[in-house]
Hints:
Helix content: 40-55%
Radius of gyration: 18 Å
Oligomer: single chain
Number of strands: 10
CATH superfamily of the largest domain: Aminoglycoside phosphotransferase (APH), C-terminal lobe
Structural class: alpha+beta
Strand content: 15-25%
CATH topology of the largest domain: Aminoglycoside 3'-phosphotransferase, Chain: A, domain 2
Bound molecules: adenosine-5'-diphosphate, magnesium ion
Amino acid sequence: xxxxxxxxxxxxxxxxxxxxxxxxxxxxxxxxxxxxxxxxxxxxxxxxxxxxxxxxxxxxxxxxxxxxxxxxxxxxxxxxxxxxxxxxxxxxxxxxxxxxxxxxxxxxxxxxxxxxxxxxxxxxxxxxxxxxxxxxxxxxxxxxxxxxxxxxxxxxxxxxxxxxxxxxxxxxxxxxxxxxxxxxxxxxxxxxxxxxxxxxxxxxxxxxxxxxxxxxxxxxxxxxxxxxxxxxxxxxxxxxxxxxxxxxx
Length: 249
Ligand SMILES: Nc1ncnc2c1ncn2[C@@H]1O[C@H](COP(=O)(O)OP(=O)(O)O)[C@@H](O)[C@H]1O
Ligand SMILES: [Mg+2]
């Protein structure tokens, strides 16, 4: 059967090959990042209780490109489903929050700490002044740390829903241990790119279900926006700069 292209970015493509999904990285993609992605995925598989595609192989092809082969999950991403059924938006957001709370109920001692990662990212942030970086670090220091499993990029295009409604979570490369509200603040920002209504619905449901004060979650937003800028995703830049500016004066 011919390979079917499922997804393409400048640095990687995802293909379907029968019952397998192959993430093929571009030639100069750092080896350590590929191996790290496979390692984190394997650790998530070991935790149990979270549906995620099984990693089957990590290979290097004749062109010098690394690839991660996983089991192919038949279904639609939650992003596709939300676009196709806008009237079911609330139902989907609720399922998404419940799934994220299941993830937050787990821990995985071998993963890195979110707080350490955020410090590194703020120090790397070239978009703001040294004074602002110091200010962000002071604010970060005052926030509570925790050891909950955080996906780190929890958004509808990283969830595949099968025909029986099972939700599979993909793309664990940013997973770490930290404060659930920091993870939720990141999801809120990512949802703002889809629409303000869905983002607000998400924040309401997350705060209601976890008995969290919205103002507490909102305190994370500028900090998370600053760290998210280091991923250099063009489509997120304007929104993130807006949130960073709230803190950066
Ligand atoms: N195992 C899989 N089964 C089915 N589709 C997949 C699988 N892995 C990835 N995809 C598809 O490829 C897209 C990108 O994969 P992802 O792992 O999220 O890569 P990226 O790191 O570039 O976001 C997903 O949104 C999904 O549509
Ligand atoms: Mg993804």
